[in-house]
Structures
1.
Amino acid sequence: MSTKGYEAVIGLEIHAQLKTNSKMFCSDSTKFDAADNENTSPVSVGMPGTLPVVNKTAIEFSVKTGLALGCEIRRKSVFSRKNYFYPDLPKGYQISQYDEPLCEHGKITFKVDDVEKTVSITRAHMEEDAGKSNHFGEYTLINYNRSGIPLLEIVSGPDMRSAAEAAQYARTVRQVLRYLDVCDGNLEEGSLRCDCNVSVRKVGAEKFGTKVEIKNINSFRFVEKAIDFEIDRQIDAVERGEKILQETRLWDPDKNRTFSMRTKEDAQDYRYFPDPDLLPVILTGEQIEKFRQELPELPLARQQRFMTEHALPLYDAEVLTTERELADYFEETAKISGNSKAASNWIMTELLRELKNAEKSIVDSPIKPAALGKMVALIEKGTISGKMGKTVFQEMWASGQDPEEIVKAKGLVQITDTSAIEKIIDEVIAANPQQTADYRGGRVKLFGFFVGAVMKASKGQANPETVNQLLTKKLQG
């Protein structure tokens, strides 16, 4: 994106808390809603003499994420100490990875406004999370529950040129993490946080401008707003002849602006060195291949398969693969219903609307895929009409009842017998001689009146297609 002859250069660092039961280097629980400082031990609060032990599951989750992002996996990776002093970092250093990270040189592909984009993944490395400072006026309280939770930091290349592109990249990474079930992606709880690196340069220039980091953004909407603001701020500053400082800034969503937090450190300022208490992580080719075989079908591949195997249009495939659970729900519904497109329509219109209104996720839906599939199958067989289906659907949503039981209890069987429908049509025509004469005289719009009258007389149970066919024949006769 070009503004005033400048272009933005954007890279993202996504910090994903891994969905392990215990912390990165000790057995403390990672449960989010624990009481303040409940999930702590001498290790996670940095007591002298304590020793870290690596969480095996965190390594497995990290390798799988790296493979899903197309990364090369190092057979040998090393944990280092990243030294800086902050109240919520109890040891005075963070255990992270520096020059020998677990995952490197990957890429991820996504679409922005129907244009395909590919962004490189420079590295994805393991580290531990810091605690959390809670500020109350002139006092600050520290909660160390988060301290030591396993993090995977996914660092993109400086490949993005607009805020919209960066936000979509972040959404896509979150989608992959959730498909893998290695991170819940809950931005409100801080399970996923974004740091945005932004600089500007003249269009056509090869050299990057001075990079500014916007720290810890917990909303994709705020990612977009913060980057847009920062691009405009930097361009205005350069135009005024000011020097852009390498610094860390924070986003203020209430004022819709970024503000300076601290000058940005370079890598050498952290004085990285290998952690003497931790051995290198050694992986064999067989282990890496085993993790690769365990990967689920990823969103883009599943989207393509939905279009070929289920003959769905692109829009349907994109919506239905946004979450792994939604894609699973669709596939089971489609299999039972025998009509993939009809299953897609019911899920995307009726079910997703009700879930949104009730603020429920697909896994909490009172209508299970088997039940919805059976209901769609009843419509396909002609047992009930589409209109009846909506009645059945609402009852299923309210009660969780089986669709066949609802149809039986409410007497919603569709009338398909042509002689029975013909008899109703004859009665409607006989009861409306003036309208019949007007229709036969050229007022063809009255056809809708007759359809409505027949459906009303049949209590909505007559097959609409048969009604239309027989009415046309009778009125023209």
Note: The chain has a mean pLDDT of 92.
2.
Amino acid sequence: MEIYSIRGAITIEENTSENIIKNSEYLLKEIIKQNKIENENIINIIFSATKDIDKAYPAIATRNIGITDSSIMCLQEMNVEDSLPMCIRVMITAKLDLAKKDIKHIYLKNAKKLRPDLSIKGFSVAIDGPAGSGKSTVSKRIAKELNFIYVDTGAMFRTVALYCINKGIDCSNANMVANNIEYINIEIRFLDGIQQIYLNGENVTEKIRTQEVAKGSSLVAKIPCVREKLLKIQRDLAKDNNIIMDGRDVGTNVLKDANVKIYLDADVEERAKRRCKELLERDIIADYQQIKQSIEERDYQDKNRDIAPLKKAEDAIVINSTSLNIDEVANLIIKNIKENIK
């Protein structure tokens, strides 16, 4: 047997002793049932309740259902602005004959919003915007916090461009690219929820992050056969996974029915600074003026291409990240996601 901590939460309808105890019993029973916990294997149980719950201790429920030999504690949850009201949380530490992957954390009623990855499947978030607006960085942050899968569509186009560059194929020559498209095998794998991209069996996640490849990706993105090949991969990933997908046309084309759509923007000067910093962190020499010019050129190409140009979806929320840090942007998007989870 291994020792595990199992989490859970439930919301209550009103602040009464009866309501608090009844819902706490319901939550405990569901956790115990779903994880096949024997009373004698429970080590301790810690409850926390939001500030608006004060008519009874949730711990009373443990005695009511026969848990009498474990350490129990009740705490008040931090009073965080815009946090979920009327919520009781619990953590049960117990010895279980289960693998970690088989542990079931239980979130009931409106508390499902706290762990959307557990309560729903196939929830999609589309984040579009120009180069350097912070899409990838913020998408990774959100995916990690919500336990969603992060899909970087731009990386897929970069991978096609890398293949062309390595083979001496002009990225702007649609016929040459089309003649080679069947030889480009792209596979997406995930490590701790972070996308790893493979080109014909080779992990090229880092190799695609160069300015040359970035320019090439904007060119191959105009070619119909490339978009058709990648579109199927992208939509298949969204069918059975909770995903955060970023790109140029996710909300307008790839995932037109995404549950949440964000258009993330920033001033070109700020985007150039961010890209320079990103490259320098990889020990790549970066010239600010060249980067700025490259971003402006890419903006023009992305917004004026014939197929799926970069634009804001009609139902997308616009966030300008110029004066915001990553945490501020992520919190705004996470708040919107939780508000849209049914």
Note: The chain has two domains: 2-111, 124-340.
3.
Amino acid sequence: MYAIVVLLFMMKSKCSHLSLIVLVSLLAGVLGGALGSAVSPAFRLSFVPSATSGTSAVLTPPSPVPANGFATAEDDQLIAVLDRVLPAVVSIAATIDASKLPSRRSVNPFFGEEFPLGESEPAPEGRQKIGGGSGFLVSAGGLIVTNRHVVEDPNAQYEVLLRNGTSLSATVLARDPVLDLAILDIEGDNYPYLTFADSDALKTGQTVVAIGNALDEFRNTVTKGIVSGLNRRIIAENDFDGELIEEAIQTDAAINRGNSGGPLIDLQGRVVGVNTAVSFAGQLLGFALPSNLVKRDVEQVQKLGRIARPFLGIRYLIITDDLVKKNNLPVDHGVLISRGAEPSDLAVIPGSPADKEGISENDIILSLDGTPINDEHSLSSLISRHIPGDTVALRILRRGEEKDVRVTLDEFKPQK
């Protein structure tokens, strides 16, 4: 563009007034064409053929404009799916008697809590909201899946807000002692509900949609993305502690505060995961618990009235290249049964299934039911696919010799 303007002024002194007008018109046409191509690359690429080695590319005309003016066939499919899915997605609010909240005092900022200034603030009255999240119905009878951390407080009361604006009191039926999952129940029947897809069949690059109560303010927020990775092993941290999550689904569908417990669905409207964690260190790094684990919890609550987790009873170190080098280990996979950091952290829990079958410290567990224990298949994830009472086959390396041991798993009882 700059070159065209310079040429115009160079020729001005040598051209008649009429010639100048013609030249200006000509250059304006050239300039307009160039700008049109620049701002409309999609249109230009649809009609201008390109040639490679003397052959012409096949021209592709632009897609016809749909009858509704904007939406494509893929858009129409997703809109239809969301029409079915959104009524089954709920918002969850946690409230507590305000008089039970910790007292708040005016505090001298130079001396801390030991030196309060003035009088304590009056205790608030009524109920006060202390948290919230998302969830989704999984049965016509009112069963709801959410994250455990959304309903962690045993002293709180929980309210479920349906899409139609109805608010209902919810009962926490079960909290998973291992996974960040919980099952609620609301009174009533004939609720719309979601079904589960097989999360083992998920593929990287598959389109997924996250739904939830974003920022605890924008209900039924929908974000679309792809499966960015599978079988991720992460530490999810909240304000109080951290929790190991294995087999997590990574997605770039935006997951925000308040989305916890909402569904991650495929383009058929089936649940492939439960939105659980997000990385604030990167961009669009969200994680969900796979649907197969969630489905098992729902089925156990329906059959047993609780979530029963399998228990082997060992502490261990995952065998890594560094551990192999430092300890001259004869294998490069599996787990090494080892004591914890504290003297009371025994390698094998007394009376546990592992203890009953003679498994001992420094044994290396190589596989479970024939599946090698490695980065793709951790010991805990393989055990989590079972229920208490199942018998599993472990291949163990002890003092250079491999042996097979069959162990009947017990039910995990969290310490109180």
Note: The domain at 310-411 is CATH 2.30.42.10 (Pdz3 Domain).
4.
Amino acid sequence: MQDLEERLDGLAGEFLQVYEKLGIADKAAQVAELEKQVADPEIWKDVKLATEKNQELAKLSDEVQPWELLKTQIDDLKEMLSIADEDLKEEITGQVEAMEANFAELKKALQFRGEYDGGDAILRITSGAGGTEAMDWAGMLERMYLRFCEKHGFKVSCLERVVGEEAGIKTAVYEVSGLNAYGWLKSEHGVHRLVRLSPFNANNLRQTSFALVEALPVIKADTDVVIGEKDLRVDVYRSGGHGGQGVNTTDSAVRITHLPTNTVVAIQNERSQIQNREKAMEILRGKLAQMQMEQHAETLADLRAGESAGWGQQIRNYVLQPYKLVKDTRTGFEETDPEAVLDGELDDFVRAYLEM
């Protein structure tokens, strides 16, 4: 049993280093404090505050629970091992192997250590030049990401969706909620290129299409990304539905332009102008934070205008004809089963990006 004791001691030592580095004990104390707060009936007099505290509790619990559970399992097994005999060696070996595998999975989550990685994300998909072909490609990407989010258990809320005249979408905006949602999706930010035989061309010619995917961190607090009012132009207009019909009869849709970077965000999904403005500002903060990270800018004043969908800027190529291959241009990672990728199997691409 000596070898098992040494193996378990090694696991416990490495685990404790990571546990302390992540401050799990302090976070567990925060969980306990939040549980007290949301259990107090008084806090529910302010429903917005109570909801925010509840969401904070849920996310923090999701982060802390697996680490606390593994710590308890290691401590229990060390105690059991000190009194166990050879008859239990096989059973204990199995438990140690399971804990090692669990710890390896938990360590993978440490890749999500960016400032916004643990939070929610805004996913915006926009078709590039190319009419119906490009809109159909944007629709394919939309399905891919919805399947990816479903497989990871993320909650997805549609903020805005404009369908194409014949197929696909012109644009779609989703809010993705869940542990490390932005961390998982940030690798998808950029232009995606498709090469295939066109289903919309009578001659069945090979066609190249582009779509822009924006993965942005959700930043609700205006103290995290401070935007001066003088830098904003806010326009309100009437929301429009399919066929030109009004979603409502008030000027509830909001378009906000960040003048220094000419960054524009428009939202018309919510019922009220106030809600649309709040959501538009949330997305704008995310866009500016994303630009700041990409451009390594110290302040918002240092930002340049963002990218647009076009040739030569793609981060990933999806080739369905004359051969089958999906290749990430940044990491070099390849997958020869495009159908699986387009069905939401993106984990290997994300991990290759995070490890880069």
Note: The chain has nine helices and eleven strands.
